[in-house]
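Sequence in, structure out. First:
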Amino acid sequence: MISAAGFAAQFTELMLAVLLAPVLTGWVNQCRAWLQNKSAPGLLQPYRVLAKLFRKEVVLAHNASPLFRFAPYLIFGCLALAAAIVPTLGTDLPLNAAADAIALVGLLALARLFIALAGMDIGTAFGSLGARREMLVGFLAEPALLMVLFTASLISGSSSLATIVETLAHRELVIHPSLAFAGVAFTMVSLAENARIPVDNPATHLELTMIHEAMVLEYSGRHLAMIEWAASLKLFVYSCVGLALFFPWGIAEGGDWLGIVLALPVLLVKLALGGAGLALIETVSAKMRIFRAPEFLGTAFLLAVLAMLVHVLLEH
């Protein structure tokens, strides 16, 4: 039975994801600017951009379908629900019984489907180009992500993220070599899924390289704000999934009110370190050509499969 602390943790996690996602994006941009010896934007700059976009008028193409209008809200809703599934403060969550790691991947895939359809809806060359590239990346990244989650599921004996966290963080300390391979694969998948260097550059508008930006060029006003907010939320979701799988310490178990309160500063510290690490990876990496992305994600898939084999052969 879910306790009152579980419902409180669920609501708090959802609100933190929605409100802190732009801060995480601002922190990554700030760290990357510092590492490149540039003048860093403010930590709250993403909020200013969102506020400006919400005040602007929406301009729609004449042939835009209802899907193009509703896609930003559907994408944001899918990613918000995905954020609610991932345990960041506590493991006693009401959604644990309804959704597991496979459902999480399904929600991420559904958000990708909506943004790809919206990109092709207007019929522009850039939108169709970006949608094809996005589906190519997703086609290769989703199996690798599933293999990473299956490795953690084999260790814990369950596909529930809460059970995985409880197994890895709140039981006896065991070193799992398979998680090392899974961690590298997950990092590679996260870079590709969040349109980061070396797969994509979130700051570019060159037609030969852009993936995510090509699909949202026709959006404006509040629709573009929801798309940008959803992109920040996706980065937050992947960051929290990585922390839950590979750094689950500090997450409260059961209905522990004090543990939930103490888990918040721990989460903020881990997100800050993870954001700085992401900025470092982007700074020392070079943007690869788009036809090299299958090789990059194929390597991630092989590492994820190797992680499963290491667990089955050496740890089982």
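Second:
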Amino acid sequence: MEPFRVYILGCGSALPTIKHNASSQIVELRGKMFMVDCAEGTQVLLRRSHIAFTKIGSVFISHLHGDHCLGLMGMISTFGLMDRRMPLHVYAPKEYEALFQAQLDLFCPRLDYEVTFHPVDTAARQIVYEDRSLTAETIPLDHRVPCCGYLFREKPTLPHIRREMIDFYHIPESQIANIKNGAGWTTEEGTEVPHERLVTPADPVRSYAYCSDTRYMPKLHQMVEGVNLLYHESTYDKSRLDKARLYYHSTAEDAARVARDARVGQLMLGHYSARYEDETILLNEAKEIFPNTILSDERMVIDVK
């Protein structure tokens, strides 16, 4: 099974702290690397995580608050200094397009690689990226500015060939593709060998949902139903519910309710308020509702499985 990993580059909120960087992640799937949000300091965390800048082909921005996007233009400039040639695709709220182009013209007027901006309608649920192996879909969220999360979903793969059966029936290599796509085999004696005897099931499809800044949404679970791994902001604990509602953020309890109702495989908390020197209070609060919960932390790498 191909690696499907999430690298945490930053999991703090807007106020800088020594402990946490602001929001940024890398999603790795089938040899491709996608960045999700790009706060100040992201380049340093990329270095510390030993992630090659050249491997990042796309950046997905959830919303236009500084702790999620102010590192983007600096990173684009750095890519230019590194003699990048591969195109970079930026998916971000449509409200950013004019300013993005103005910043690009001002700070990066002579790049030797192409930067393409893809405007995202944060209020719509739609596939904004697709290739042969995966899709990236928007998740409309409820924040003070237009905001969306992103759902990365693997495409189904073909079943695995049972090599011992291929050898037993002397099936030529030229027929392997047909068998993977559902064909059976007929021996020289006329015996029909069904497709199911020649293969084992395909790997299960995996998925990862990134829910950036949002206050609790009672129907959010419907959009992330059954994902293997859910990242959901947990800026506050439930004793500060008033602040969560005021600033359009979530508590750890809110995040756990979404995970429980969506029947996800695992919940990962993040976007911690700077008031918490120890996020254990958030972890314990979430675990009371959804036991399979973990805390995100800088330089953490988690497999989606």
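Remark: The two ends are 10 Å apart (CA to CA).
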